[in-house]
From TrEMBL, chain A:
Component of the SCF (SKP1-CUL1-F-box protein) E3 ubiquitin ligase complexes. InterPro entries: SKP1 (IPR016897), SKP1-like_dim_sf (IPR036296), SKP1/BTB/POZ_sf (IPR011333), Skp1_comp_dimer (IPR016072), Skp1_comp_POZ (IPR016073). It comes from Jimgerdemannia flammicorona. Coiled coil: none annotated. Belongs to the SKP1 family. This is E3 ubiquitin ligase complex SCF subunit. Essential component of the SCF (SKP1-CUL1-F-box protein) E3 ubiquitin ligase complexes, which mediate the ubiquitination and subsequent proteasomal degradation of target proteins. Residues 7-64 form the SKP1 component POZ domain.
From TrEMBL, chain B:
GO terms for cellular component: SCF ubiquitin ligase complex. It comes from the Eukaryota. One of its GO terms (biological process) is SCF-dependent proteasomal ubiquitin-dependent protein catabolic process. Residues 13-50 form the F-box domain. This is F-box domain-containing protein. SMART domains: LRR_CC (SM00367). PANTHER family: F-BOX_LRR-REPEAT PROTEIN 3, PARTNER OF PAIRED, ISOFORM B-RELATED. SUPFAM superfamilies: RNI-like. Pfam families: F-box-like (PF12937). InterPro entries: F-box_dom, Leu-rich_rpt_Cys-con_subtyp, LRR_dom_sf.
Length: 164, 608
C-alpha cells in the first residue's frame, strides 16, 4: 500500500518521481487512478520522458495552491487566457520540447497546462507558412507521403479558403 | 518514432493547438502541412466560417450542396456550427436573399447564427431557418425590420434548443412575442431586448417563472414597481442590466413581490422593518453575479446602499456597473460598495460627482474589494489622487482600466502605465492629457492587448513607444498620428497581432498610407480612419481607373459607422457619405476586397 499523501510516477524509461498527491489535484488522470488503483505502488506514465515529467511536476507544484476554479475545458472561450509570469519557463522552450509538454499535459489531463502549452504553440505557428511550420516540427519526422501530398492538400485547402 | 512525431500523431493535441490560432488564414496554412495537420485543422476551419465576400458566399453555398459532398469523404456542412455572415448581408444586395435561404438549411449542426440588421430576412426566411436548424442555440435578430410580430411568433418558438436570443431594437418585439417565447422556449437562458419599447412589464413579469440567467432591459416600455419586483424574483438570474422607465424605485429590486407592497407605505418604513420583509427575497437573489443599474433622478443613496448590502452580502456579486445621477452624490455610495461588495472583480462607476473625498473613498473600495481586476471610471470627479490609490492598492492585479472624462493629469496616467504592469487594456478618453503617458509604455514592457488613447497629438517618441513597447496589441485606437514623422510610421509593423486600428486624424498623409497599413499589419481586420477631404478629388477615379493592381492591398468602404465619439461631440455637424468618394463601383469594390486577405472593414467618414 503506497503512502496516500504521496504518489509515485514512473516514466517510460523507469525513472520514478514521488511527489505529494496534492500537487496533482488538477490532473484528472491521477485523480481517477487514485480512486480506482490507489493501493498500487506506482503509476506508470507511458510516452513521457523524465525531463518532461519533471517539468510538469514543477508546473503542478507552482500552481498547487492556486484558488482558481479548475478548468473544465482548455478551449473554453469564456475563460480568457491570461499569461502568468510563473510560467515563463514554457515561453523560452524549444518547439519540440513544448510539443512534448503538450502531449504530457494531455496524457495527464491537466487542462491548465494543456491550455498554456497549446496557446504558446499556437502563437509560434501564427503567421507562418506551411513550409515554416514543417521546419518547426522537424521535417525528418514527417512521413514522405505527407510531404508529397501538398498538391492534393492545396486543392482542398483552397476550398477551405472560401471561408475567409 | 520520436516523442515529437508521436505527439503529432495524436489528433487531440493538434486540435488543442489549432483552437488557439487567431485567424483562419493561419489555420489554412496548417491544413497544408501534412495529413494529420489537415485532418485536425479542417473541422476547426469550417466550424466558424466568416464570409465577407459576396462571390465567396455563393462558392461556400455550392460547397455545401449534397451533390458536391458526394465527391469527398468529408461532410463539410456538418462541421459548421457558427455562421457569421452579418457583414455580408449588411451590404443589402438583393441577390443574397436566395443564397441565404439556400445556405442555411444545408447546415444541420448550426448552433449560432448572426442575422443582425439583415434586411433580407423575412418571415418566410425565418420559417425556413426554424425548420432547417433545429440545433440552433444562439440567434441574433437585432434591428431586423422585415420580420413581423406574427412571423416571429410563428417561427422562433420552433427553435426548441434556443438558449440565447438578441432582439435589440426589433420593432416587432412586443409583449405578445415575449409571452410566447417565455412559454415555448423553455431552455432560454439569455435575453437581450434593449430598445424594444413595445415590451412592458406586463409580459416581463413572466421572467419570474423562467430559467433565465441573463437579462438586459434597457430602454424598454414602462414597468411598475411590482413588475420589477417580480422580474427580480426569478431565482436563476445571474446577470441583470436595468435601464427601465416607470414608477419604481430601488427597493423593488430586493423586495418580495408577493404580496405587492404599497408604494406609499414603503417609504415610511424604517430600514430595520424592511430588512425583515425582504429577507425571503434576498435568499432568492444570492445567484446575482452581475448588476448594471442606470439610476433615475429620484434614486436615493440610502436606498442604493441598502441594495448593495442585500446583494453584496452573498459574495456572489462580482460585476457592478453603476450609472449614477449627478450631481448629488456623497461618498456614501462608494462607502456602501466598500462595505458590502467584497467579492467584486469588475466595477464601473459613471457620473459619480462628489467632492475631493472621492479619491479616499475609491481607495477604501479598492482596499476592501481585494479582487477587483477591471475598473472603469467615467464622467466622475476623481483626480490624480484616485489614480494613486489605484496604483498603490491594486497596481499588480489590475487587468483593465478605463478613464473617461476624469480630471487627471499626465503624471497620474503615466504612473498608472508605468506601475500597473499587469494591464491588458487601457482606455483614456476625454481627459486633458498629452502623449506623455504613452512614452512610458516602452520602458515597462507592456503586455497590453487593447489601447485606446485620446490626446491632441502623438509625437515620434510616443509612437515608437507604443509600437515597440506593446507587441501583443490587438486593438489600437489613437485620435491622430498626424504629427508622427513619416519615416517612423513603419514602426507599426511591430504590431503583428493588431486586428483593429482606429485613427481619426491622418493629417496630410497621402491615401497611400492605407495601402501601407494593410501591408505592415498582417493580422489587420478592421481599419477605421477619418477620410481626408483632399482624397475626394481623385481617390474614386483612381480606384475605378483599372490601375489598381489585382492583388494590391488597397481600400474599400463598407459599413460606414457612426463612431461613439462623434455622437458625443454635440453641436458639430457630421456628414456621412454613402460611398467612399462617391465613385467606387462594385467591380473595384470586389477587387479590392480580394486584394486584402484580412483587412475587411475600412470605414470612412467626413466631419465638417
Amino acid at each position: 500500500m503506497s503512502d496516500p499523501a504521496n504518489i509515485t510516477l514512473v516514466t517510460m524509461d523507469g525513472t520514478t518521481f514521488t511527489v505529494p498527491s496534492a500537487y496533482l489535484h488538477r490532473s484528472k488522470l491521477v485523480q481517477d487512478w487514485l480512486r480506482s488503483e490507489g493501493d498500487k505502488q506506482a503509476m506508470e506514465v507511458k510516452h513521457v520522458t523524465p525531463f518532461v515529467l519533471q517539468g510538469v511536476l514543477n508546473f503542478c507544484e507552482i500552481h498547487a495552491e492556486d484558488t482558481s476554479e479548475p478548468l473544465a475545458d482548455p478551449a473554453d472561450p469564456t475563460k480568457p487566457f491570461e499569461a502568468d509570469p510563473r510560467d515563463d519557463a514554457f515561453r523560452g522552450m524549444p518547439d519540440d520540447q513544448l510539443l512534448q509538454f503538450t502531449m504530457a499535459a494531455d496524457i495527464l489531463q491537466i487542462p491548465e497546462l494543456v491550455r498554456l502549452t497549446a496557446q504558446e504553440m499556437a502563437s509560434r505557428i501564427d503567421g507562418k507558412s506551411p513550409d515554416q511550420i514543417r521546419a518547426m516540427f522537424n521535417p525528418d519526422d514527417l512521413a514522405e507521403e505527407d510531404v508529397d501530398s501538398d498538391n492534393e492538400m492545396g486543392e482542398v485547402g483552397e476550398e477551405g479558403a472560401i471561408s475567409k | 518514432m520520436t516523442s515529437t512525431s508521436h505527439a503529432l500523431e495524436i489528433p487531440l493535441i493538434l486540435t488543442n493547438i489549432f483552437t488557439y490560432l487567431s485567424c483562419q488564414s493561419h489555420l489554412l496554412s496548417c491544413t497544408l502541412v501534412s495529413r494529420n495537420f489537415f485532418s485536425a485543422a479542417i473541422p476547426i476551419l469550417w466550424r466558424r466560417p466568416r464570409i465577407y465576400k459576396p462571390r465567396f458566399f455563393s462558392a461556400f453555398t455550392s460547397a455545401l450542396q449534397p451533390s458536391t459532398n458526394a465527391h469527398t469523404l468529408r461532410s463539410y456542412r456538418t462541421y459548421v456550427h457558427e455562421l457569421d455572415v452579418a457583414y455580408l448581408i449588411r451590404q443589402r444586395r438583393s441577390d443574397q436573399h436566395a443564397l441565404l435561404v439556400t445556405c442555411l438549411p444545408l447546415l444541420p449542426n448550426l448552433a449560432s447564427v448572426d442575422l443582425r440588421d439583415c434586411s433580407i430576412l423575412t418571415d418566410d426566411a425565418l420559417a425556413i431557418l426554424a425548420e432547417a436548424c433545429p440545433h440552433l442555440k444562439t440567434l441574433w435578430l437585432n434591428i431586423n425590420t422585415a420580420i413581423t410580430t406574427q412571423g416571429a411568433i410563428d417561427s422562433i418558438p420552433r427553435f426548441a434548443k434556443l438558449r440565447t436570443l438578441h432582439v435589440d431594437g426589433a420593432p416587432w418585439c412586443t409583449d405578445e412575442f415575449i409571452e410566447c417565447i417565455f412559454g415555448s422556449c423553455r431552455l432560454l437562458r439569455a435575453l437581450n431586448i434593449t430598445g424594444c419599447r413595445r415590451v412592458t412589464g406586463d409580459s416581463l413579469r413572466l421572467v419570474r417563472s423562467t430559467q433565465l440567467r441573463s437579462l438586459v432591459l434597457r430602454q424598454v416600455g414602462c414597468m411598475t414597481r411590482e413588475q420589477v419586483a417580480e422580474i427580480m424574483a426569478c431565482r436563476t438570474l445571474e446577470e441583470v442590466e436595468l435601464v427601465v422607465e416607470g414608477d419604481w424605485d430601488l427597493w423593488a429590486l430586493i423586495e418580495d413581490p408577493s404580496p405587492p407592497p404599497e408604494s406609499d407605505a414603503i417609504s415610511e418604513l424604517s430600514d430595520s422593518s424592511l430588512r425583515v420583509r425582504t429577507i425571503s427575497a434576498v435568499s432568492s437573489r444570492r445567484t446575482l453575479r452581475k448588476l448594471s443599474l442606470n439610476l433615475a433622478k429620484g434614486a436615493r443613496e440610502s436606498s442604493l446602499v441598502a441594495l448593495l448590502d442585500r446583494l453584496g452580502s452573498s459574495d456572489a456579486l462580482v460585476d457592478l456597473n453603476l450609472h449614477l445621477w449627478r450631481p448629488s452624490e456623497t461618498t456614501a455610495t462608494l462607502d456602501g460598495i466598500a462595505s458590502h461588495c467584497h467579492a467584486l472583480r469588475r466595477l464601473r462607476l459613471e457620473r459619480w460627482d462628489g467632492d475631493c473625498t472621492g479619491n479616499e473613498a475609491l481607495r477604501r473600495i479598492l482596499e476592501s474589494c481585494s479582487k477587483i481586476e477591471v475598473l472603469h471610471l467615467c464622467e466622475s470627479s476623481f483626480t490624480d489622487g484616485g489614480l494613486e490609490a489605484v496604483v498603490e492598492v491594486c497596481g499588480g492585479r489590475l487587468r483593465e482600466l478605463t478613464i473617461e472624462d476624469v480630471l487627471v493629469t499626465d503624471a497620474g496616467v503615466a504612473r498608472v502605465v508605468r506601475e500597473c504592469t499587469g494591464l491588458r487594456a487601457l482606455v483614456v478618453k476625454y481627459c486633458q492629457v498629452t502623449d506623455a503617458p504613452l512614452r512610458e509604455l516602452k520602458a515597462c514592457g507592456s503586455g497590453m492587448k487593447r489601447l485606446s488613447f485620446e490626446c491632441e497629438s502623438v509625437g515620434e517618441e510616443a509612437w515608437r513607444s507604443v509600437c515597440e513597447g506593446c507587441p501583443q496589441l490587438e486593438f489600437l485606437e489613437l485620435w491622430t498620428i498626424a504629427e508622427v514623422p513619416k519615416e517612423h510610421l513603419h514602426l507599426i509593423a511591430h504590431l503583428r497581432h493588431l486586428e483593429t486600428l482606429i485613427c481619426y486624424g491622418l493629417g496630410a498623409l497621402p491615401e497611400a498610407i492605407l495601402l501601407l497599413l494593410a501591408r505592415w499589419l498582417p493580422s489587420l481586420r478592421d481599419l477605421i480612419v477619418q477620410k481626408s477631404t483632399r482624397w475626394d478629388e481623385w481617390l474614386g477615379p483612381w480606384l475605378n481607373s483599372g490601375e489598381v493592381q489585382r492583388h494590391q492591398p488597397t481600400m474599400l468602404s463598407i459599413g460606414l459607422q457612426y463612431q461613439e465619439w462623434v455622437r458625443r461631440e454635440e453641436g458639430i455637424h457630421v456628414e456621412f457619405e454613402g460611398n467612399i468618394a462617391g465613385g467606387v463601383g462594385p467591380y473595384v469594390r470586389e477587387e479590392v476586397i480580394r486584394g486584402m486577405p484580412l483587412c475587411t472593414v475600412l470605414s470612412m467618414y467626413s466631419r465638417s
